[in-house]
Amino acid sequence: MKLGVFYEHQLPQPWENGGEEKLFGNALEQIELADWLGFDYMWQVEHHFLEEYSHSSAPEVFLGAVSQRTRNIRIGHGICLASPHYNHPVRVAERLATLDLISGGRVDWGTGESASLIEMHGLE
After folding, report:
1. Which of 35, 61, 80, 111 is disulfide-compatible with 70, CB 3.0–4.6 A?
2. Selection from 101, 98, 107 nearest residue 73 by Cα
3. Distance set, CA 1 to CA 55, 77, 122 (Å)
4. Burial class (CB in 10 A: 0-12, 13-18, 19+), 49
5. How many angstroms separate the Cα of 84 from the Cα of each of 15, 45, 120?
6. Which residues of the chain have pLDDT under 50?
């Protein structure tokens, strides 16, 4: 059996100053601990325009930080939104290749479309 952790970065209201910074800092500390404890993988989603459900609009930045704070845990980028309004396929490949290089080959990738019309039509 393999064990992992999954992050959407949920932040319910009421929001306080520094809330998102604390949210991301806590998640990074948890992932460092998961790596140290021998967890096999971590996954980070991508979402846009969802105020409380997910503060994950730039997962590649967060995953870059994860790659430098961990040594063994697999780094999952998923789902990476497939709509070209969000992510051109060439740019996705470039970001994934760079993340894979700086992480020592630990990247896994998942793709799909969003679950809400707010997200799917947000950048049209």
Report:
1. 35
2. 107
3. 30, 21, 39
4. middle
5. 31, 17, 10
6. none
Q: Of 112, 118, 104, 101, give the one whose Cα is nearest residue 46.
A: 112
Q: What type of residue is 33?
A: L
Instruction: Pull the structure tokens for residue 123.
Output: 């950048």
In this prediction, residue 122 carries a pLDDT of 63
In the chain, what are the domain boundaries? Answer: 4-8+18-120
Quick one: three-class SS letters along 15-30? CCCCHHHHHHHHHHHH
Sheet with 74-81: list strands edge to edge. Answer: 4-7, 41-44, 74-81, 107-112
pLDDT at 124: 66
HSE, side-chain direction, 13 A CA sphere, residue 117: 0
